[in-house]
Design brief:
With about 280 residues, the protein is an alpha/beta fold. The chain folds into 3 domains: about 70 residues, no CATH class; about 140 residues, 3-Layer(aba) Sandwich (Trna Endonuclease, Chain: A, domain 1), CATH 3.40.1350.10; about 55 residues, DNA polymerase, domain 1, CATH 1.10.150. Helix content is about 50%, strand content about 15%. It contains 13 helices and 8 strands. Helix 2 packs across helix 3.
Length: about 280
Amino acid sequence: MAISVTKASGVSEPFSEAKVRSSLKRAGAKPEIIDKVLVSLTGKLYDGITTRAIYRQVFDSLAQFQEGIHHRYSLKDAIMKLGPSGYPFEKFVARLLDHLGFTTQTQVTVQGQCIEHEIDVSALKDDQHFLIECKYHNRPGTKSRSRDALYTQARFEDVVAGYKSNSNHVNKFHQAWLVTNTKLTSNAVKYGRCKGMKLLAWRYPEKGSLEQLIEANNLHPLTCFTFLDLRDRQSLLQNDLVLCRDITTATDQRLSDLGLSSDKVKRLKAAAASLHG
């Protein structure tokens, strides 16, 4: 009998070994490790098991069989931990775009035709100007909806109307972006496409989605390190240590000054080296 899996949204679907295998491959697990993890998982499946329970089983097996890779496997959960406010996610998006050749600023206040707006991320590249709304969710199963796209586009149109009187922007191409750490509803995608918006989300677009950009460029958030507690994460994020790779260049003294114990500093450095050594 097929095993039924309960997703975070409450929807059930048949268990797919192919999905688990694909996620392990994206994380960089070796073929023989993938086989070991799947053998271990198969013996622990039961009808109605949640995706969260499957994730924990796979994560624990990876930690046992291939040290370092389990940090990459926790990507979706790690992005969820870029909270509780949305600002760390904005900083993360800006750092991702910086790596891709953009020049970025976060929390920029600009005058629209009607009112002032605070733009989450303003990005420039090749004389093109992108106004980016970052929609962060900290609950699994939550999707960004059409109202988020409508809100983003309305703000964008007011800002661009205000820019028309600014000679520095007359010849620039402008585009609204909606970047979210979760999936998009079909109506959000439909509206965004209709308005010429750039949409970047979990599993969207099919090529160049948020997780694909992160994995392809090895730009994992430091929240991948599950041994960091909330206080640790907030201290690091508030001091512009956003990516796992930031830990490789931070001195032990700086990390200690941020409140991490000497044992945790050593563990953090070792974990970062396993990803970027």
